[in-house]
């Protein structure tokens, strides 16, 4: 029974698990089973097959995805990344429990992504950063405030469709 469990465990190991196993562990696991040792002798070759030389090229492993938005961490972070930003910044005041916020967030990110770096987007959770919500007069969520050069340029409250979001973002960047 123990041999079956060992064999089942060895065969169900993921590639990541096998890569993390030292070759001596794989060899020891294979030789610990006396009656199944011949069927498990291929385990060391599996480890060598999945060696780093056979994995994806580094360029594919480390492809970075440019983030469209960022989460505000505290008041100082808000000042550094929003108020002092050279780009116009859309500040999305939202809450985890807010249904319309969950709909608006991805739509707004898509509208910002279409601008290809001409506008930034900050996300502020009002439950975590009540002080910022009060400071900017947020009384309902979702509220989006456009800030350019530290000054409020425009804002809206509630959900909007894709065309309205695109025109709002275009207006903010001055297109």
TrEMBL record:
GO aspect biological process, one term: cell redox homeostasis
Domain Thioredoxin: 50-174
GO CC annotation: mitochondrion
A Pfam match: Thioredoxin
CDD domains: TRX_family
Keyword terms of this UniProt record: Disulfide bond, Electron transport, Redox-active center, Transport
Family: Belongs to the thioredoxin family.
Protein name per Swiss-Prot or TrEMBL: Thioredoxin, mitochondrial
Lineage: Eukaryota, Metazoa, Chordata, Craniata, Vertebrata
């Amino acid at each position: 029974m123990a041999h079956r469990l060992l064999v089942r465990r060895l065969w169900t190991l993921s590639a990541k698990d096998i890569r993390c196993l030292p070759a001596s562990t794989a060899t020891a696991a294979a030789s610990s089973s006396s009656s199944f040792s011949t069927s498990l002798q291929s385990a060391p070759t599996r480890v060598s097959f999945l060696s780093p030389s056979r994995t994806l090229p580094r360029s594919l492993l480390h492809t970075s995805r440019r983030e469209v938005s960022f989460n505000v961490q505290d008041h100082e972070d808000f000042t550094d990344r929003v108020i002092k930003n050279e780009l116009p910044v859309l500040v999305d005041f939202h809450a985890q429990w807010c249904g319309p916020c969950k709909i608006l967030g991805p739509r707004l990110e898509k509208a910002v992504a279409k601008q290809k770096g001409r506008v930034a987007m900050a996300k502020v959770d009002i439950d975590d950063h009540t002080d910022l919500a009060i400071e900017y007069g947020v009384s309902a969520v979702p509220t989006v405030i456009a800030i350019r050069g530290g000054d409020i340029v425009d804002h809206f409250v509630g959900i909007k469709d894709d065309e309205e979001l695109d025109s709002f973002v275009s207006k903010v960047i001055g297109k």
